Amino acid sequence: MSSEAQSRAVSPAGSSPAATPAGQFNVGLLGFGTVGSAFFELLRERSAEIERFNGVRPVISGVLTRSRGSFEEILADADLLVELIGGVEPAREYLLRAMRAGKHVVSANKQLLSQHGEELFEVAREHDVRLRFEAAVAGAVPVVRLLEESLSATPIERVHGIVNGTTNFILTEMAAGSTYAEALAEAQRRGFAEADPEDDVSGRDAAAKMAILARLAFGSPVHLDDVRYEGIEHLHGDDLEYARELGLGLKLVGTAERYKGGLSVHVHPTFLYSGHPLAAISGPFNAVTVESEIITELTLSGPGAGGRQTASAVLGDVVSVMTGGARPPAPPLVLDLIEDVESAYYLHLDVADRSGVLAAVTKVLGEHEVSIKSVVQRGIEEHARLVMVTHPVLESRLDAALERLGQFDFMRAPPRTIRVIEEEFT
Ligand SMILES: NC(=O)c1ccc[n+]([C@@H]2O[C@H](COP(=O)([O-])OP(=O)(O)OC[C@H]3O[C@@H](n4cnc5c(N)ncnc54)[C@H](OP(=O)(O)O)[C@@H]3O)[C@@H](O)[C@H]2O)c1
Predict the structure, then answer these.
(1) Residue ranges for the chain with pLDDT beneath 70
(2) What is the C-alpha to C-alpha distance for residues 292 and 324, in angstroms, rounded to an integer?
(3) Is the CB of 62 under 6 A from ligand 1?
(4) C-alpha 221 – ligand 1 centre gap (Å)
(5) 10 Å Cβ neighbour count for 176?
(6) Does ligand 1 come within 6 angstroms of the Cβ of 65?
(7) For a substitution probing ligand 1, which of 29, 30, 35 has the most ligand atoms within 8 Å of its CB?
(8) Which of 24, 55, 64, 72 would bridge with 3, disulfide CB 3.0–4.6 Å?
(9) Residues 6+ apart with CB under 8 A from 9
(10) CB of 86 closer than 6 A to ligand 1?
(11) Residue 65 alpha carbon to ligand 1 centre in Å
(12) Closest to 6 (Cα-Cα) out of 59, 78, 55
């Protein structure tokens, strides 16, 4: 295809083909921070190579920040807008206006996609424009494209993700012996954590990404508010030590899975056995595992953040649009969201060190159908610690057992629980 024909082929509906010189593809850039400035540089470095294989050269036709540029002028000149502002407004308004004007859009904005995804997808479908958002989940790891394109014909049963590099770095440091406070300070010193790390350590950032992945994997709309999440702030160093004895490593894992005809999406600190593909992911890296009967298991991993790394995913989206890339997700098929699902659990009980306690604990667990896979018992002066891993049990059953246990006078502290993924794929 000639440059001119290619340019016409990717010309967004409703935009004036005359606005962009033949062989040139105008990209309006909204936001010029960590990712925006890295994207600007990367596009400049790579534009000749992109033109070589594509016949069309992407060019930045305008930049918007709070103090620079006019949205209207950038919109008028662009074939495509890249939104790297972040947050909900004005990013949402800008993307909607661009798509209604027939322009393609690329965004890295997980907050926006996880809260207004359906509205954006609908407008993209209505106006027959592309809406790409690879960098909104797991940075440079091409998991959005994997789900939207490569696995679009594969019935997916479960997606597990380490989708927050900050918490994975902190947990890696804690596994090596640091306290939570020391590990967080180190993450901040090395630029892996913001000065205000709340969104990361609370699990909310991972929840937003899992909402997006769940929509892509299962076709059902999932809002950030539908995702139950728990962070890493309250983890105890001794849980990591006991777990190591049981052959387990700790990660903040997001899960989206089919369950009894519905869908469950949640984020929790989770123990993994060493044979699970996510167990080996350390430091600020991200990884996503997709499970399906047809493909068994498939894992992608790589840098989940960083200006240049994220910019490479954004530029990949731009090239995808230039070459006619995937349409927005189809209208949703709504599945019920289910909260009470089965999981294996790690259970930590501080109890009085006296005879009969273990028997009483196992009796209560048995009455609630909580069966024990492994136990570590330690006596420390008049206290004892019972650390167990259960077989999979409904969360509501475990909660009922823990409530009953809490009524015994031998309990020295509230029980602590952490989910365990049993699969190893080895
Ligand atoms: N940083 C990463 O590693 C990473 C990784 C994956 C995804 N992302 C996503 O990428 C996006 C950008 O992140 P970032 O880290 O590059 O953010 P950032 O460094 O804070 O940059 C934000 C940019 O947006 C501009 N901006 C803010 N409000 C604006 C407004 N009302 N109108 C116009 N411009 C406005 C800012 O301009 P001023 O300079 O005028 O304030 C700044 O240039 C976010 O959605 C983020 O979630 C980031």
Answers:
(1) 1-19, 380-381
(2) 28
(3) no
(4) 26
(5) 10
(6) yes
(7) 35
(8) 55
(9) 1, 324
(10) yes
(11) 9
(12) 55
Query: What residue ranges in 108-247 does DSSP mark as E strands?
Result: 131-132, 158-162, 228-229
> Which residue, by CA, sits nearest to atom 17 of ligand 1?
33
Q: Is 85 in the pocket of ligand 1 (CB under 6 A)?
A: yes
Give the position of tokens 């393609």.
Answer: 104
Percent share of the chain, pLDDT over 70: 95
Rounded Cα distance, 314 and 306, in Å? 12
How far is the CA of 128 from the CAs of 10, 81, 124, 152, in angstroms? 12, 15, 6, 20
Which protein residue's CA is at the shortest distance from atom 42 of ligand 1? 33
Q: For residue 423, report the distance from its CA to the centre of ligand 1, in Å.
A: 38
Cβ neighbours, 10 Å, residue 159: 24
Share of the chain above pLDDT 90, in %: 84
pLDDT digits (tens, 9 = 90+) for 197-240: 999 999 999 999 999 999 999 999 999 999 999 999 999 888 88
Give every CB contact of residue 67 below 8 A, 6+ residues apart in sequence.
none
User: Catalytic positions, please?
Assistant: 209
Cα–Cα distance for residue pair 195/191, rounded to 1 Å: 9
pTM to 2 decimal places: 0.93
**Ligand 1 in contact with 67 (CB < 6 A)?**
yes
Total residues found in the chain within this entry: 426
Does the CB atom of residue 310 touch ligand 1 within 6 A? Answer: yes
Query: What pLDDT, on a 0 to 100 scale, did the predictor assign at position 381?
Result: 67
